[in-house]
Amino acid sequence: MSSDGRIFREAWIAGVLKHYPGEPKPGYIAPWEETPDWERECAAAVLGQVREFLRVSGGHASKLSREQKGRFVALCWIAQIHKHIENPKPGYVADWSELPAWQQETDADIFESIERALA
Predict the structure, then answer these.
(1) ∠ CA(12), CA(96), CA(86), 5° rounding?
(2) Residue 94 DSSP class
(3) Global pTM?
(4) Local mean pLDDT, 10-residue blocks, the chain (119 residues)
(5) Among candidates 11, 16, 28, 43, which has minimal Cα distance to 103?
(6) CA 79/CA 38 separation, integer angstroms
């Protein structure tokens, strides 16, 4: 399991703390060491997908809007949920338009955090 997922997880926690209305669920802000293995694997996989996307775009992914960046993260995450959970709750695989604003903003922050970390 790659420690690359830590970058994703730290960006997730920072985004939740910034955008979540009220007090987030403890699992939302649990540190890497307390994150379940399947979630760590998902985080590492999505970071890898963003990394590869940035690579194959030749640096032009930076021109995407925040929404486009967030949508990419969300879609990659949904695929990982389907990989790791046989019958996920609908909220776990909700389309972008169904996600709460705090989660959309957090997903965009994740993409941008990965961009900065890889720059």
Answers:
(1) 80
(2) -
(3) 0.94
(4) 81 97 94 94 96 94 96 98 95 95 98 93
(5) 16
(6) 13
